From TrEMBL:
This is IclR family transcriptional regulator. Keywords: DNA-binding, Transcription, Transcription regulation. Residues 77-252 form the IclR-ED domain. Transmembrane segments: none annotated. The keyword Transcription regulation applies. One of its GO terms (molecular function) is DNA binding. PROSITE patterns: HTH_ICLR, ICLR_ED. One of its GO terms (biological process) is negative regulation of DNA-templated transcription. It comes from Nocardia vermiculata. Residues 15-76 form the HTH iclR-type domain. It comes from the Bacteria. InterPro entries: GAF-like_dom_sf, HTH_MetabolicPath_Reg, Tscrpt_reg_IclR_C, Tscrpt_reg_IclR_N, WH-like_DNA-bd_sf, WH_DNA-bd_sf. The lineage of its organism: Bacteria, Bacillati, Actinomycetota, Actinomycetes, Mycobacteriales.
Length: 258
């Protein structure tokens, strides 16, 4: 009888262990390809014994590799998942061609964003040709409360998502956010200046799936100093044309998950 009562707690403990393991893995990125044990302990706030146990488990699975000086990094087990993710989340050749045409026309960086819950994630990027350019990290979640692409991705989001986004952004209410999204829906594009990052601007337009839903956003972004009124007008034409072309041709393999 005791086993029945402890089953949920065991399940909860398993979920916590998974969450902690993911928390450790998320500490590694392009800027931090390796971490010292003391950094991991400090960043997670977990007891050193717990961190050591997590690292040992992850290392046994090939997801972490440890050095002799208490230095850790992502293990070779990720290699097969990297290849799998690249193939599953790849945009099609026609989409890449459209993105390149926007870069050639504007000189600015072009991204394809999708919505994941209350975040947006860039799944494809072609950097601009200018020396000073705006670049985000592909695969990294950004809030849906700021940025031109964020507002595009909210066009078909349920009310619960809009309320969640507004609740997590200081100074923003659902009553303020909803009219912004409605206006963008009417005009068919979005423009932002300094919302996500001071000095950065963007123009974005919706990519629509075969069922008529907004499944992604294509954006052009760069320093605000280059986004003059005249250029923004040209960028709007270029980006909305690219969005229409991608919508017609299909986004690519990634579309099956959207």
């Amino acid at each position: 009888m005791a086993d029945i009562g402890t089953a949920p707690s065991r399940a909860d403990g398993g979920v916590r262990s998974i969450a902690r393991a993911v928390e450790v893995l998320e500490l590694f990125d392009e800027r931090h390809p390796t971490r010292q044990l003391r950094e991991i302990v400090a960043s997670t706030g977990l007891p050193k014994t717990t961190v050591v146990r997590l690292l040992a488990t992850l290392e046994s699975l090939g997801l972490i590799i440890g050095g002799g000086d208490s230095t850790y990094g992502p293990g070779p087990g990720f290699l097969r998942w990297v290849k799998l993710a690249d193939s599953l989340w790849e945009v099609g050749e026609e989409t890449t061609k459209c993105m390149q045409e926007v870069v050639d026309t504007s000189g600015e960086t072009v991204n394809i964003y999708i919505r994941q819950g209350s975040s947006r994630v860039a799944v494809a990027q072609i950097e601009g040709t200018a020396t000073v350019r705006s670049v985000v990290e592909v695969g990294v979640p950004y809030p849906l409360s700021t940025g031109a692409s964020a507002k595009i991705l909210l066009l078909d989001a349920p009310e619960t998502v809009l309320r969640e986004v507004a609740a997590h952004q200081p100074g923003l209410s659902y009553e303020q956010l909803k009219p912004q999204v409605d206006t963008i829906r009417e005009v068919g594009y979005s423009v932002s200046h300094g919302e996500r990052e001071f000095g950065a601007s963007a123009v974005a337009a919706p990519i629509v799936g075969s069922d008529g839903r907004v499944i992604a956003a294509v954006s052009v972004s760069g320093p605000t100093s280059r986004f003059t009124a005249d250029r923004v007008g040209r960028y709007v034409d270029t980006v909305t044309a690219a969005a229409r072309a991608i919508s017609v041709n299909g986004l690519g393999p990634v579309e099956v998950f959207l």
